[in-house]
């Protein structure tokens, strides 16, 4: 059996928008198959598209095009729907959450690349958050003869390094650390009893998001939005309890502050967004290198995401890109970032409240971990 990995990185390519269509730009991404793509292909040399598709970086020095073949866990071309992504990527995470693993989905990419479309969808195409939450409640209902579920929700926004509660429109909230990790001071979870209620909270929170138009995209969101479902599962026959968390994170645009021609407040927003994303990138790089010290503390985003990256969490990173050469730099940077994240691998363990378990359990776990360590 392949080693369980705690991060899956997928790339989603969005179709041309109106402006890209009108400007008749070159296509800079060719999806080769379900898990690889060619960045910056050379149009006249089609056979190169298929040669050496497994090679990480193809350097053909005589040509100016980068022609980089990149591999990911999955690459979704423009004809794939949110439903496709849900079926293949987040439905398995719902199962993992109910098995006791913290899970997170986050969307990364430049403004306009399709992050919010992926998470929230559009009028006739529900996004991953909706589909995933509906699935979660269906599965909860199918299991409630043997297990009790206590569900709570929180929806936070990190904007200019300030943490706001999107459900109550209060903040800024302070972060502090205790034995269980990072705690958001003053955050009270909203108890939830149905998928409808959960989605209603999502709608309330979305209405409270800080949104400002920028030059790059009139509908851009300059904040990071973190929607988290906290579930306490009690096994009715043994009394074992475990607490798990499913997080859906819509990150702010990853483009450089310089490319959004803002001044004053807008510039500060850009700078903070970059600070948070830079910190996230640093954490990803260190996790990828297998280093012990991960600088989660460098930004509020990474502090909140501490248990969503590496550690005891299954993470799905969706890198959103456009295939138009109008966004060449952004797409290149997003793909580089995603390639780096792909290397993170760590051993998973379920969340179980220890006091409810017999001693043999720990002995078995420790033996398993030692064997795992030996193997690694
Ligand atoms: P972001 O949140 O990354 O800034 P959006 O999700 O708002 O970007 O997407 C920008 C525009 O592109 C929106 O009008 C959105 O509807 C459209 N779009 C994004 N991804 C897709 C897709 N896969 N299919 C169709 N339209 C898309
Ligand atoms: Mg958005």
TrEMBL record:
GO cellular component: cytoplasm; kinetochore; kinetochore microtubule; microtubule associated complex; mitotic spindle midzone; nucleus
Binding site for ATP: 109-116
Keyword Glycosyltransferase in record: no
Keywords: ATP-binding, Coiled coil, Cytoplasm, Cytoskeleton, Microtubule, Motor protein, Nucleotide-binding
Cellular location(s): Cytoplasm, Cytoskeleton
Biological process annotations from GO: generative cell mitosis; male meiotic chromosome movement towards spindle pole; meiosis I cytokinesis; microtubule depolymerization; mitotic centrosome separation; mitotic spindle organization; sister chromatid biorientation; spindle assembly involved in male meiosis I
GO molecular function per UniProt: ATP binding; microtubule binding; microtubule motor activity
Keyword ATP-binding: yes
Record-given protein name: Kinesin motor domain-containing protein
Species name: Drosophila mojavensis
Lineage: Eukaryota, Metazoa, Ecdysozoa, Arthropoda, Hexapoda
Name of the encoding gene: Dmoj\GI11399
Full-protein interval shown: 1 to 376 of 818
